[in-house]
Amino acid sequence: GSFDYVVSIYHPFLASISNQITTTVSENYFSGNTIAVYPNPTSGKFMISLQEKSKIEIYNSAGAKIREIAEASAGTEIDLENLSDGIYFLKIETAEEIYCTKIILRK
Questions:
Q1: Which residues fall within 8 angstroms of residue 104, CB to CB, at 6 or more apart?
Q2: Residue of 5, 35, 57, 94 with fewest CB within 10 Å of its CB?
Q3: Backbone angles phi, psi at 103, to 5 degrees
Q4: What is the mean pLDDT of the chain?
Q5: Is 95 helix (H, G, I), strand (E, B) or coil?
């Protein structure tokens, strides 16, 4: 499953303002396949663990496709170091299913 860890920072003089930092380790199971994306957030490079060859597409927050990997395999490393900080979306397509998740780029 997915695990979210939330840390709230409280300052007594700024009680109405709080910051949250969330990190997610995502490991998903469907139709006998396991897909893991880590680390998330990332400073640029991250891994996608796959059990079968898959097509991976990466989209920015505006919905524009910025990268495509036609035949990704187990242990695929992806480098986003040349992109701006932000949230990006991964679309991972196997022979039977499509899985979507987000990756947070924070340098």
A1: 40, 41, 42, 86, 87, 88
A2: 5
A3: -130, 135
A4: 77
A5: coil
- The DSSP bridge pattern shows strands 33-38 and 65-72 to be unpaired
**Sign (positive or negative) of CA dihedral 59, 64, 66, 72:** positive
Question: What residues have CB less than 8 Å from 76, skipping those under 6 apart?
Answer: 47, 48, 50, 56, 69
Edge-to-edge strands, sheet with 98-105: 65-72, 54-59, 86-93, 98-105
For 83, the token pair is 């992109």
Element (H, E) at 59: strand 54-59
Q: What is the pTM of this model?
A: 0.70
